[in-house]
Amino acid sequence: MSQVWLPSLKNNSLAFSVRVGGSDMFNRFHVKDTVTIDLREIAHINVDRESQTARIGGGVIISDLLRVLDEHGMVAPHPIISSVGFVGWATHGGYGLLSSEYGMGAEQILQAKIVGADGAVRDADEDMLTVIRGGGGALGVIVELTVRVYPLTQLLAGFIVYDSEDLPMTIRRYNDAYRQQKEAGIPKELNLFQSVTNGPIGKAMGVIFVWASSDFDAGQKWLSIVSSWSPVAMSTVAPTTMSVFNESTKTIAPQSAYGKSLTLSLRELTPEVVEIICKHASFQPNSPATIFGMHELRGCAPQPPLNTLIAHRHPHFVMELLPTVRDPDLLDAAVAWAHEFYEDLMKTDPANIMASTYLPLTEPGKVNMKGIFGDKYEFLKVMKHRHDPDNVFKHALVRL
Ligand SMILES: Cc1cc2nc3c(=O)[nH]c(=O)nc-3n(C[C@H](O)[C@H](O)[C@H](O)COP(=O)(O)OP(=O)(O)OC[C@H]3O[C@@H](n4cnc5c(N)ncnc54)[C@H](O)[C@@H]3O)c2cc1C
Questions:
Q1: Is 3.40.50.280 the CATH classification of the domain at 155-364?
Q2: What is the spatial distance between Cα 47 and Cα 193, in angstroms, rounded to a whole number?
Q3: According to the model, what pLDDT value does residue 292 have?
Q4: Architecture of domain 2-152 in this structure
Q5: Boundaries of each FAD-binding PCMH-type domain copy (predicted)?
Q6: Which residue, 75, 175, 106, is CA-closest to 313?
Q7: Which among 110, 312, 298 has a CA at the least distance from the CA of 212?
Q8: 262 and 321 Cβ atoms separated by less than 8 Å
Q9: What's residue 2's pLDDT?
Q10: Which end of the chain is less crowded, N or C, counting CB atoms within 10 A of the terminal residue's CB?
C-alpha cells in the first residue's frame, strides 16, 4: 500500500503528517492544509516469549500492547497514560514507570520497518536504527518496531496521595526524605512518579508507586518506606497486572483538554528547585486537568549497548508543567501559572539545567535541536540529508 500512497502524495505536492495516539501536546499530528496519515489500523502485536521480543505495528496504542503482553506474562517499558501511541513514545526517547529497571523506550528498539522517502518499505539498517532511537519519524513512517519485552506477571502498583493540607510542607518533606533515601539506595524495581494534581480530595501531592517485581514482601517493605515520607491521605497500591494498572491511569489525564505543555530537564531536584515547586504548587489552578509532574531517569537504569540519538542519558528529572483545562475560560490563568513556574525554574542554578529537553513536550518556539541531540546532532543531519534530501517527512517532530 505504501508504494502507492507516498509517491501519489509526492506527485501531487501534498504534504502530510502522521497520527497514532493523537497525544502530541502541540497537535503536530494534524497540520493545516495537509493530509493526515492515521496509522491506527497497523495494530498487530506478535509476542515471542522465547526471544523476549515483540513485533509491534506502527499504529499500536499502549492499552492494547499492555493487554496482549499481559496475556503472555510479559511487560515492556511504556508511558504512563494508556491512550498514547507506542511508536511515537518509544522513538522520541520514552520515559516510563519501568525505566529504572529496563531503560528508556528507545533503548528497547531492536529492528524497524520504515516507509522511506521513495515510498518503499525497508528494514532499517543500523544507522537508520540509531536515528529511530530518539529521532522519531525523521527518516520515514515507521510501520513496525521489534522491541525487547520482559517476563513479569504481577506487580504492586497504585497511587499514594499525601495529606496536602499544607502543600508546600508535604512537597518539602517528601523530597527531603526521597533525597536521603536515594543516597542510601533505591532498588531498580521501585519506580515513582511525583505529581501535584487536582483529584478526588482536592489539590494534592502524590506519587504513582510501581514495584515491578513479584517479590511482594520486598515491595510491601518499600511501600511502607515511601508511605512514611509524609502522612498519607489515600493509597490504592495493591497487587495488579501492568495492563490493569495502566487502565486506571486514565483518571489522571483528561481525554481532551485545552492547553499545552512546558518542560525543562534538571540534573537534580536540589533544595532550591524544590522550593520553587513548593511556591508554584500553591498557585496551581484547581482545574482537574492542570497537572505538574516529573519523570525521573535514575542512575540504575540499564543502558543496552545500542546506538541511539539520546544525548541526555545521565540521571535527570523531566519537569512537566501542564496548564491544561477542560473549560477554555480557565486557560489564560493556567498558562500564566505555568509560565511563571517555568521562568522561576529557569532562574535556578544554570549548571543544573540541561540543554536537552524532552522534544514531544517542548514548545515549538523553544525547540533547540542542537541542545536536544547534543553531539549526535551532526549525525542526525547527515542521515536526514542521505535518506530524506527533499524533506518529505518535514512534519515529523524532528525538524531540521
Ligand atoms: C496524556 C499524555 C501522557 C504522556 N505520557 C508520557 C510518558 O509517560 N512518558 C513519555 O516519555 N512521554 C509521554 N507523553 C508524550 C508522548 O509520548 C509523545 O507526545 C508521543 O510522541 C505521542 O505519540 P502518539 O502516537 O500518542 O501521538 P501522535 O500525536 O499521534 O504522534 C506524535 C508524533 O509522533 C510521530 N509518530 C507517531 N507514530 C509514528 C509512526 N508510527 N511513524 C512515524 N512517526 C510517528 C509523528 O511525528 C506524530 O506527529 C505523553 C503525552 C500525553 C499527551
A1: no
A2: 28
A3: 97
A4: 2-Layer Sandwich (3.30)
A5: 1-152
A6: 106
A7: 298
A8: yes
A9: 52
A10: N
Name the residue with higher pLDDT: 273 or 34: 273
Residue 5 pLDDT exceeds 90? no
User: Using one digit for the tens of pLDDT, what is the confidence trace for 270-288?
Assistant: 999 999 999 999 999 999 8
**Cβ atoms 112, 308 nearer than 8 A:** no
Q: What is the pLDDT of residues 153-192, one digit of tens each?
A: 999 999 999 999 999 999 999 999 999 999 999 999 999 9
Evaluate: CB of 95 within 6 angstroms of ligand 1: yes
Burial label for 13, CB within 10 Å (0-12, 13-18, 19+), is: exposed
Residue 7 has pLDDT above 80, yes or no: no
* C-alpha 176 to ligand 1 mean position (Å): 33
Best substitution site from 20, 32, 290, 296 to test ligand 1's pocket, by max atoms within 8 Å of Cβ?
Answer: 20
Is 28 close to ligand 1, i.e. is its CB under 6 Å away? yes
Report domain extents, the chain: 2-152, 155-364
Ligand 1 atom 23: residue of nearest CA: 88
Lookup result for grid cell 500500500: 1
pLDDT digits (tens, 9 = 90+) for 108-166: 999 999 999 999 999 999 999 999 999 999 999 999 999 999 999 999 999 999 999 99
302 CA distance to ligand 1 centroid (A)? 23
| Nearest protein Cα to ligand 1, atom 36 | 88
Q: How far apart are CA 15 and CA 117, in angstroms?
A: 12
